Amino acid sequence: IRARQAESAYQYRDILVCKQDGYTHLQLSIKSADDNALTLEAMKEMQAAMALAAADDSQILLLGAVDGTFCSGLDLVTLVKMLVENKQQSTRIAEGLRDFVSAFIYFRKPIVAAVGGPAVGLGAALLGLCDIVFASEKASFETPYAVMGQSPEGCASYTFPRTMGYLAACELLFCGRKLTAEEACTKGLVSQVFWPGCFTQEVIVRVRELAACRTMVLMETKELLRSVMRSELDLANQRECDALQRIWSSSEGVNSLISYLRKQDKVLP
Amino acid sequence: IRARQAESAYQYRDILVCKQDGYTHLQLSIKSADDNALTLEAMKEMQAAMALAAADDSQILLLGAVDGTFCSGLDLVTLVKMLVENKQQSTRIAEGLRDFVSAFIYFRKPIVAAVGGPAVGLGAALLGLCDIVFASEKASFETPYAVMGQSPEGCASYTFPRTMGYLAACELLFCGRKLTAEEACTKGLVSQVFWPGCFTQEVIVRVRELAACRTMVLMETKELLRSVMRSELDLANQRECDALQRIWSSSEGVNSLISYLRKQDKVLP
Amino acid sequence: IRARQAESAYQYRDILVCKQDGYTHLQLSIKSADDNALTLEAMKEMQAAMALAAADDSQILLLGAVDGTFCSGLDLVTLVKMLVENKQQSTRIAEGLRDFVSAFIYFRKPIVAAVGGPAVGLGAALLGLCDIVFASEKASFETPYAVMGQSPEGCASYTFPRTMGYLAACELLFCGRKLTAEEACTKGLVSQVFWPGCFTQEVIVRVRELAACRTMVLMETKELLRSVMRSELDLANQRECDALQRIWSSSEGVNSLISYLRKQDKVLP
Prior knowledge:
The structure is a homotrimer of 269-residue chains. The first copy, chain A, has 269 residues and is of the alpha/beta class. In chain A, 54% of the residues lie in helices and 14% in strands. Chain A is built from 12 helices and 9 strands. Chain A has helices spanning 2-11, 40-55, 76-85, 89-105, 122-125, 145-148, 156-164, 166-175, 181-186, 199-211, 215-248, 251-263, and strands at residues 15-20, 23-28, 60-65, 111-115, 118-120, 132-136, 140-142, 179-180, 192-194. In chain A, the strands form 2 sheets. A 6-stranded mixed sheet of chain A has the order 1-2-3-4-6-9, with helices on both faces. In chain A, strands 5-7-8 form a 3-stranded mixed sheet. Chains in contact: A-B, A-C, B-C.
């Protein structure tokens, strides 16, 4: 294991990848932005690691974060810099996002997420594309898209209404209501909540147990559950990225992002 | 604002319409029936007001009621009178209902409902076509269709199973179980519950906040959330109105409505 | 009633059927296996009784069990014996299962389930195809498919995500989490929970009330609720039975079933 960790440390900058006990452990540890925000480069690295985990003998993909924050969503600071420089870049960013989300939609093995801290925007939306989500009491969940001047991404416009009902989804996506781990569990966005002290331990026990199941059974079960919605998820991803591209290529959209980031005290160009 | 209220008071008999702070406030205040029951005329007025709100610069439609009762559903007394006179009228009523429900399905801006008292039948069903539903502790929710001798309407046969799960939907639609505001919130039919004393105030704060969001973002978000289900809602509405038309044009159906209304001490022809 | 019970006692071995007060009461009392496990013969008997209840003037089908256990799912001991003898039998078993589940999908009258004890595997999955589910406090719900080395059946891969959200469904189907009656009610797999002492009485009162509704209204309502998903349920059933057939006809699948049953101290060939 130690050798592999060393190896992966060479391969990736923004993630740590470690294969053990039948599962691949992918941890966000993003150097190119604050709070585990997803840059285009970090997303490319995750896609590469997911492609390897899909092809090797891993039974499960376990997705977590090294730091306290699980993931604060798309790296908006870099995004705004790119758009201010040239609005044409909106197409490239939307395509990068679409491909990243596709990697989740088409991943054929069970994905377990372990959320130990805040999950914001895309960081929360992606959970709807995982199969099991464990959260620590310290986790929180927030998709304040309308407030940011964005529209939903990561198939949240599809998965959130189906997970928690249409009205509850609107509260998160329109009003940006922030959920505690317990509230997210009640709403179906989290499978189980654990005390922070034993969080990692409890997750690993469960992931090992699942990884010990027959490959055939895990694959058939995931296929039965996801295959019916895969083409709809694909369409939702496409529609969401198209809407974001329209927003990002408009002055109204970029200005609204800039105002939002200024309120957050982010340094902008 | 005062001028507009005066203006709308001339235009409408059964509703109060008031445009302010970026939203249109539509309040039921039905004179032609008891308990804010929906007559064909009241539904036509609401459609007209919704068409104006869709076309002007309102960001949000806020739907409420002046009196204690939010809405007691279709005005069954007038309905029965019409059917007893001539069963052929069932077609006209079903068409009126279908067009009214269509106005909700095709409304492109967010609809916020503020339910301060009982919501019964169509009055509760319509909430499934809104985007955010705030309720006072005094609100209650009830769709006793099977008991009344009716079948579901307002797309409840589609939205209720998706909002609260199939089995919970059956309990409301078959058994007519009455929900408190808290229960409706747990089941996903209500977004948030407030104390009656500060209800209007809390709603207005949230509606203003939402109305301050970018138009583009509100429209794109609602479109992403609703567009996938619009054709299915349309079909559900059509199927529901066809079923009601079959019930209303049969002696069994009309007699069952009459027995139900007699038990409620309603004066009938 | 007594005469009919006597009559049904002649007709069936594994079920008790009793028609009264407008409903057909079908109770599992399986002699050919332990714990009300479903043999191919018991499933055939249930299909025959359901065909009669569909055609006669029963308004409701009430499904329960004579013994403590509601239903422990497919009779795996006989299944393994058949597969060990000849793997070709996997086709016959998968077809028997598919036809049995079809009988639920295409049943046009409301089905009420009364779950007084453990519901396991197919015994729990079938509840997603009923319309109302009453449970005693002593009931429990469990679908440990991955642990058993099986994939989901009874349309659970379709109904469970829609009933309780995708992530909660994965916890039951992948991790085999066992739910109490209260938990199942919160997740939407149960409509209402009663104390064991008055369970049968409370159920009968509600079933009689429902059976007193107009036939036309019950049929139209069920049709509105179920017709939209019938072709999808049919496809889910087909896909699930195909997956099980693949598992049952593989050595990996049969060996995993044998290990599971050995751990349960079941006597095997």
